[in-house]
Write a structure and sequence with these properties.
This protein is mostly beta strands. Among the domains are: about 130 residues, no CATH class; about 150 residues, Jelly Rolls. It is built from two helices and 24 strands. The strands form five sheets. Strands 10, 11, 12, 13, 15, 18, 20, 23 and 24 form a nine-stranded mixed beta sheet that branches. A hairpin with a 2-residue loop joins strand 5 and strand 6. It is elongated and about 160 Å long.
C-alpha cells in the first residue's frame, strides 16, 4: 500500500534515498519520492491527467520500483494506493525499456529507461524525455570491519638462488696422521757400483758323458736316422743335395669335420666374410686345417682365422692366422698349424676373408645343417655383426701326430 499523504504535485522529499524492490505482488509503501520525479509530473500535470493516467516509477540501477494505478479510477489526494508488480518490465501507465547508454530511438509516450551514462531514469512524454529520478550520491565510507580469521599457511615457495660464498673460516686444528699410503712405483736403477775383489776359484765339475759323433759324409742312398744326432747332415751323391736330420711331428687323424655338401659355394670378399663354428670333440693340439675352397674368377688368395666364439658367433679373438693361394677350381686346401690347443666341448670359429674384386669360394651344404656341432655364419660389414645361416661349410680339423727323426732337404 502507498500512502500518498498529500497531492502528487506537492511531493517534496527532504533528500534522496534508495527504495527497495519487493517480490511480485508485494505491497510497497512510499515515504519519500525524488524531487525530480515530482517536478516532472508537475510540469506535465495537464497532459498526464488528460490521458486519464498518472505514472510514477523510481529506478535504481535499472530496476522498476513503483507503478501506480490510474488516477482517473477514483484515486484522490491523500488516498492509499495498492501497487502490484506482476510484470516488472511493463508498469501500469509506464513502459519500461531497460538500461541504455543513450536514449532509445523511435520512443512513444510512457516509454521509460535508465540512462547508464547520465545515471538517471527518464520517461518520454509528448516529444521530450523527462527526468524521473537520479542516482543518489555515494554514501560515506563505512567503518573498517573487524579483521578476519587468519588464513591457511600458503604452499612453500621455490628455493631461492644460492647466496654468495661466505668468507673463509679459520684454519682448523691439525688432524690425526692418516694411514700409510700404498708403496710407490719402483725407482730407476742406480749406477753400477765398483767391481768387487775377485773371489776364490770354485772346484772343478764332473766330466759329462761322451756324445755320439755327428754323422757326416757322402751317401748314395738315404742313411738310417735311428742313431743319428738331431741336426746331423749328409750329402746325397746321386742328387747332390744336402739333408739334415730333424725331429718332425706328423699330422694325426681327423678330429672334427663336415664334408657333406650340395655343390653350393659362398663368395668371400674383403668385407663379406663367412664362418663355420665347430665344437672340439676332445682336447687335442691342432696339427692342420683343411677347407674346400676355390677362386671365383682366376687364381687368388685368402686369409683364414681361427677364433674363439661369443654368443655362438665369431668373437674377433684370434687364436691363429693363416694365408692360402688358391687356384680357380674348388679343392681341399690344407694348412698346418703351430700347435694350437683345443679344449673338449669348446665352440670355435673358422673365418675366411677374401680379397676385393676376386672372390674366394667356400663350398657348403645349403638349406640344411648336416653338422650338429656348429653352424654357418656370414657378415657383410667385416665382422661387426654376424648372421646365422641354415647351412654348414666344409672343413676338417686334424690333430698333431707323433714326432720322429727324419732327413729333411736343406740345400
Amino acid at each position: 500500500m502507498v500512502n500518498l499523504g498529500k497531492s502528487v504535485n506537492n511531493l517534496r522529499p527532504q533528500h534522496e534515498s534508495p527504495l527497495l524492490l519487493l517480490p511480485s505482488n508485494a505491497v510497497l509503501v512510499f515515504k519519500r519520492f525524488y524531487t525530480s520525479l515530482a517536478r516532472g509530473l508537475a510540469s506535465q500535470r495537464r497532459g498526464l491527467f488528460a490521458a486519464g493516467r498518472v505514472a510514477m516509477c523510481l529506478l535504481l540501477g535499472g530496476m522498476v520500483l513503483v507503478s501506480t494505478s490510474c488516477m482517473s479510477n477514483g484515486v484522490s489526494d491523500g488516498q492509499a494506493i495498492e501497487v502490484h508488480l506482476d510484470n516488472p518490465s511493463v508498469c501500469d501507465g509506464l513502459i519500461w525499456l531497460g538500461t541504455f547508454a543513450s536514449a532509445p530511438s523511435s520512443p512513444v509516450n510512457d516509454d521509460a529507461y535508465y540512462d547508464s551514462g547520465l545515471h538517471e531514469s527518464l520517461i518520454y512524454l509528448g516529444s521530450t524525455w523527462y527526468e524521473l529520478c537520479q542516482d543518489g550520491a555515494p554514501g560515506a565510507t563505512g567503518a573498517t570491519g573487524a579483521q578476519g580469521p587468519k588464513g591457511d599457511t600458503g604452499a612453500i615457495g621455490a628455493t631461492g638462488a644460492q647466496g654468495p660464498k661466505g668468507d673463509t673460516g679459520a684454519t682448523g686444528a691439525t688432524g690425526a696422521t692418516g694411514a700409510t699410503g700404498a708403496q710407490g712405483p719402483k725407482g730407476d736403477t742406480g749406477a753400477t757400483g765398483a767391481t768387487g775383489a775377485a773371489g776364490t776359484n770354485g772346484t772343478n765339475g764332473t766330466n759329462g758323458t761322451n756324445g755320439s759323433t755327428m754323422a757326416y759324409g757322402l751317401y748314395s742312398s738315404i742313411p738310417s736316422v735311428g742313431s743319428v744326432i738331431d741336426g746331423s747332415i749328409y750329402i746325397d751323391t746321386d742328387d747332390t743335395h744336402f739333408y739334415q736330420a730333424q725331429l718332425v711331428t706328423s699330422i694325426g687323424s681327423v678330429q672334427d669335420q663336415n664334408t657333406s655338401n650340395n655343390s653350393d659355394d659362398e663368395a668371400c670378399s674383403n668385407t663379406t666374410w663367412y664362418a663355420q663354428t665347430f665344437t672340439a670333440s676332445s682336447s687335442y693340439t691342432m696339427g692342420s686345417l683343411s677347407l674346400l675352397l676355390g677362386s671365383q674368377y682366376s687364381s687368388s688368395s685368402c686369409t683364414i682365422l681361427l677364433e674363439t666364439t661369443s654368443s655362438n658367433k665369431p668373437s674377433g679373438t684370434i687364436l691363429g692366422t693363416f694365408s692360402l693361394n688358391l687356384a680357380y677350381s674348388t679343392t681341399w686346401q690344407t694348412i698346418t698349424s703351430s700347435g694350437i690347443s683345443l679344449n673338449n666341448g669348446t665352440l670355435y670359429a673358422i673365418v675366411v676373408q677374401g680379397i676385393a674384386g676376386n672372390y674366394t669360394t667356400w663350398r657348403d651344404y645349403w638349406n640344411s645343417s648336416p653338422y650338429s656341432g656348429g653352424q654357418e655364419y656370414y657378415t657383410s660389414n667385416s665382422g661387426t655383426t654376424w648372421t646365422s645361416q641354415n647351412a654348414d661349410l666344409c672343413f676338417k680339423v686334424l690333430s698333431l701326430g707323433s714326432a720322429t727323426e727324419q732327413w729333411v732337404q736343406i740345400k
